[in-house]
Amino acid sequence: MSATEGTELPQTCYPAVWIWPGLALYSGPGLGLDPHSGSVWCLAVGVDAPLTVEIDGFRVTARTALIPPRLTHHLTMTGPLVSCYLDPATQRSAACRSQFRDVVHGIGIGHRFEQLLLSPPRNDQEARRWLDTAAPEELHPVDPRMELAAKQIRDDPVNAARAAELAAEAGLSESRFLHLFSAEIGTSLRRYRMWCRLMHAGTELAAGANLTTAAVEAGFAGSSHLSDRFKSTFGLSATQLLATGLTIRTP
């Protein structure tokens, strides 16, 4: 559901999520998230108050927190939340990581431009500016073979080649390819493929598809399968999120 660039979001559209290739930005009320393990980097911002990330019995409290992929955690907050999900294969992911000087229990805290990130975006233009502040586009060299494999998955996450085929194209054994992909991209091939399918489903929903159609188009067995995978990645099901009246935008 795209809107004119710069148009203010009416209150009836709150909360909202913006989806770009490899990126998703949520702005809205704090959600009652269950413990979960994401497939990509997540930058979480407590708009009115610090948020808390709990991992393995440790608690990290901050206004801005960068949570890495594959780390099981429980995110809680009071008041509004802005969260940005960053594809590990993109330049923005590396740029965002470079903005954090302190790391506590694997969590980056205190974004360099934290004060600017405390103002949630209200329209497409502000969402893009927020993203540019949080994760500026900077060059970060990635092994071109892994970059190509990631692009193939992003372009067609439903029918993307299997690991053995991707490894053969890269001139590597399957085990070496999987190790190098994880090291270069920052998440496993399986989780990266799942992330791309979830983003594909989000794009289908933004175009007006219902949850069942979006799930099938993204390669899931059905809406319940999509909701289960969504919950394990984001901490709540797709059905729960959509029930908030969320507006999905693809500027």
Protein model, in words:
The chain is 38% helix and 22% strand. The chain contains 10 helices and 11 strands. It has helices at residues 91-97, 114-117, 124-134, 144-155, 163-170, 174-185, 189-206, 211-217, 223-234, 238-242, and strands spanning 16-20, 23-29, 41-46, 51-55, 58-62, 64-67, 74-76, 80-86, 100-104, 107-111, 247-249. The radius of gyration is 17 Å and the shape is globular. The N and C termini lie close together (9 Å). The relative contact order is 0.18.
Describe this protein with a few key phrases.
alpha+beta, 11 strands, 251 residues, three-stranded antiparallel β-sheet, eight-stranded mixed β-sheet, single chain, globular
Question: In short, what is this structure?
Answer:
This protein is of the alpha+beta class and 251 residues long. The chain has 10 helices and 11 strands. It has helices at residues 91-97, 114-117, 124-134, 144-155, 163-170, 174-185, 189-206, 211-217, 223-234, 238-242; strands at residues 16-20, 23-29, 41-46, 51-55, 58-62, 64-67, 74-76, 80-86, 100-104, 107-111, 247-249.
